[in-house]
Structure of E3 ubiquitin-protein ligase SIRP1-like:
Amino acid sequence: MDIVKQIATRQAKTLNRLSNWGLYSTFDGSYDPRTTFSERLDDEQLEFIKCETMTTRLAMSRARQTNRDYESTLMEVQLEVGIELTKILAETIDPAFSGTNAVKIEEDGQVCGICQEDMEKGEEARAMICCSHKFHGFCIFEWVKRKTNCPLCRCEMLTRKYFEF
Ligand SMILES: [Zn+2]
Ligand SMILES: [Zn+2]
């Protein structure tokens, strides 16, 4: 994995731990036998500092290699990390991504169960992980803002687990 991806993945994991706090700990730390709340938070802060150090190191070596100034190289690296982080977060947090797979429609005659419009052969679509029913990407993205089951068979949406705690 290249360094930009490594940094973004570490940041995403840390953000994921923070946003899923309730899954493995309460705010007073009573469900987390390892540490107290403030100690845990220190861990997350330390992780962000490590990511910053990795970012500046990468910018320094890239500036040296390409003979450019450090400031603009740093901005470039930060932007690249930001783009990677956004991609990872979209896939891990948004159920429309984590609960569906990207697929191509293989035959004509299929209809999107949400908008009832045709789905054409070769068209990009999203298939639910729970039942493999396929819908237009745009339709399922709108759907999961309100509901977490399949519009056709009502199965509860499964979402991929990206990070273990
Ligand atoms: Zn549709
Ligand atoms: Zn279904």
User: Anything to note?
Assistant: The beta strands are 100-104, 110-111, 118-119, 124-128, 134-135. The chain has two domains: 3-93, 96-143. Residues 128, 131, 133, 150, 152-153, 155 surround zinc ion (ligand 2) (CB under 6 Å).
